[in-house]
Amino acid sequence: MAHYAVRESPPLRGEIPIGTSKNAVLPIMCGALLTREDVRIENPPELTDVSTLASLLAACGCRVAREKGAIVITASAFRNPQDEEDVRKMRASVLVLGPLLARLGEARIPLPGGCAIGQRPIDQHLKGMSALGAKVSFDHGGVTLSGRLRGAVIYLDMPSVGATENLLMAATLASGSTRIENAAKEPEIVDLAAFLCSMGARISGAGTSTILIEGVQKLHGTSWTPIADRVEAGTMACACAITGGELLLRGARSEHLRSLLFKLSEAGVHIQDTPGGLMVFGRAKHPFEIRTMVYPGFPTDLQAPMMAVACKTPGTSVFLETIFENRFMHAAELTRLGAHIRVENRVAVVEGTPYLTGAAVRATDLRAGAALILAGLCAEGETLVDDECGHIDRGYCHIEEKLSAVGGLVRRLPASA
Ligand code: EPZ
Q1: 37 DSSP assignment
Q2: Reported pTM
Q3: What percent of the chain has a predicted confidence (pLDDT) above 70?
Q4: Strand pairing class (177-181; 153-155)
Q5: Predicted confidence band at 82 (pLDDT cuts at 50, 70, 90)?
């Protein structure tokens, strides 16, 4: 839990190392439950979501060790999570469902509640699991799935990232073949499938809307380096677009950020692919329109950072949030800095203003918190971002150090300050 004191900063210049993707590491850590052997995950990001999941897996009886910059998970003997709190602490824990069911023939987790950005049901996960032969029952706020899994054809009503990941993992040990139709195509799913194949799974089509899985008897251990975090990279590209600097985002992969990079170039920011990563130059000069979509459309996780860019970009920018029903809470906080934003249901209209002034604001969710730090970089005076709930640490590793190293005036204050 922390607060961040941010001051108006000069154009950011230098190099920012991009960490390993949170949204790739979390499903991969759950995938380690599919084998009794060691699974070594290299360069895990230092994020609270990763440590929360590590403690949950340990609480299920897995051996979870940190060895020379890697996490090693060994699920030789494990059981269902006993403490509901462990699971409810983080929504991504729902991703243990598929592996637990595939390995133990029974899985029980508390139904994850909603969160700030939306109700976030898991009906697609459960629809797919029952298609694979699981019996699904609900009681005392939890869901229990049981049964031997057999291959099936599953059609997802919407290309849910989590449901695709959960079902992909469950199907690897089901008897027979499974086809997932209308699957999500995010890079994190392609990385998960490649990780599972390195364990002996037989998967084809990841990254397309139809994924085929041939069930196998068992999977073996592996060592894996997950992909770079495209959302962290995109957030830092937005920081550059706000201050008008020149940044090398070391390790960032442009092919995972095409929609953002096109949007930033429409706004007048220059992007260049280099062998070491992505070069971003210059401030956003023109307004833009963003409709968040499933991959390869514009990622919902970068909607808030791009709204921070829009606040000082001359002209009228428009945002349509099609993925989550309540993901504009940062708009009210940005307005406290002097931004001109009107929100109507899933549409936000931002009139760029030449002048923002620092104020005390509150991080309402993970990406909103990052957006407020970015906005503070171009607000006169000091902006105090209250992150009492620790949202930012869930998805950004030492954001204040990375921005300060390139000239950003960002200080992390202990929560009690
Ligand atoms: C993943 O969440 C990411 N989290 C989210 O990142 C990201 O915003 C989201 O995908 C969309 O890209 C991780 O990977 C850990 P979904 P997930 O299932 O899997 C509805 C961040 O900031 N839905 O694709 O939960 C759901 O309510 C986080 O890093 C159902 O209705 O996303 C939402 O409106 C935030 N029924 C939409 O689909 C279901 O069974 C997208 O959800 C599942 C989802």
Answers
A1: S
A2: 0.97
A3: 99
A4: parallel
A5: confident
The rounded distance, in Å, linking the Cα atoms of 417 and 150 is 55
Last residue of a domain, one of 195, 224, 253: 224
pLDDT score, position 88: 80
- State in Å: Cα 352 to ligand 1 middle: 30
- Stretch 271-279: mean pLDDT, rounded? 94
Query: Do 176 and 298 have their domain in common?
Result: no
Number of H helices, E strands in the chain: 14, 25
Asked if 104 and 198 sit in the same domain, the reply is: yes
SS3 of 243, please?
Answer: helix
User: How large is the average pLDDT for residues 216-238?
Assistant: 98
Residue 81 CB: number of other CB atoms within 10 A?
Answer: 22
Pocket residues: Cβ below 6 A from ligand 1:
23, 26, 92, 118-125, 158, 160-163, 184, 300-301, 323-324, 366-367, 395
Q: Which of 62, 115, 311, 397 is catalytic?
A: 115
Closest CA to 307 of 384, 400, 238: 238
The parent domain of residue 368 ranges over 2-19+228-413
Q: Which atom of ligand 1 is nearest to 117's Cα?
A: 35
**Tokens in use for 104?**
């133990």
217 and 340 in one domain? Answer: no
Answer yes or no: do 7 and 55 share one domain.
no
In three-state secondary structure terms, 246 is: strand
